[in-house]
Amino acid sequence: MKLNFFEFITVNSPIRKFVQNKIEIKSFLDVPNYVKDGKVLEIGCGSGYGARLINKYFKPKEIYGIDLDEKMIALTKKNKLPNVSFEVGNVTKLDFKDRSLDGVFIFVVLHHVVNWKKALDEIYRVLKKGGQFFIEDGSFETFSTPIGRLIKTFTDHPYDSMYKRHEFFNYLEKLGFKTIKKQVYKPLALTSRFVYIGIKK
Fold it and tell me: Which part of the chain is the Methyltransferase type domain (predicted)?
């Protein structure tokens, strides 16, 4: 789904970049990096700032960024790098060959997707054996917290179909991912998010 006006402004704010740089990407750095010199995909790339962080910390050879929102892709020229390409794309129908990528990254995007199981099917399909999946996101539980309830009044999310954490983790195991990190964060009990890193068996 595409973002409403409030969400569009929020994800392109300096605060969002600060959080992505100081908190989210750092959550991915305490496991072995198997994507160095490889090909990786960022799903929901937004303006391209996440790709810059992936390039800085993981050193892949090529980065592909996709986003469903054409307005976001138009902003990526501000974050253009020689080894990065951006295009409009849908996570439930990825335009990549089977077993063609070394890594897939998602920063707080998948909870927007109605058919999240189909999205995970596609991610599993395009990853090589031994490829890494990195995701930092919210879940149904996030929007039951004090901050989550506030966010709910300003944003459009598919709450009726949104995954609960245990459903999400169980489906990844069913697909064939080996978990190397699974952690839930609840800062001051005001909100919640999770980090998952897995390897395709």
Answer: 41-135
- DSSP character for 191? -
Q: Which residues pair with 65 in a beta bridge?
A: 42, 86
What confidence category does residue 9 fall into, taking pLDDT thresholds of 50, 70 and 90?
Answer: confident
Q: Coil, strand, or helix at residue 198?
A: strand
Task: Give the Cα separation of 128 and 130 in Å (integer).
Answer: 6
pLDDT band at 124 (very low <50, low <70, confident <90, very high): very high
| Residues in a beta bridge with 62 | 39
Q: For the whole model, what pTM was predicted? A: 0.94
**Hey, which residues does 197 pair with through a beta bridge?**
134, 181
- How does the average pLDDT of the chain come out, rounded? 94
In the chain, the domains with their CATH numbers are 5-19+35-200 (3.40.50.150)
What are the C-alpha distances in Å from 179 to residues 61, 100, 147, 164?
25, 21, 29, 17
What contacts 102, CB < 8 A, 6 or more positions away? 34, 35, 38, 39, 40, 60, 127, 128, 131, 132
Q: Is 165 left (phi over 0), alpha (psi -120 to 50) or beta?
A: alpha
Give dist(CA 66, CA 44) in Å, integer: 6
| Residue 128 confidence (pLDDT) | 98
Q: Phi and psi (nearest 5°) for 200? A: -70, 125
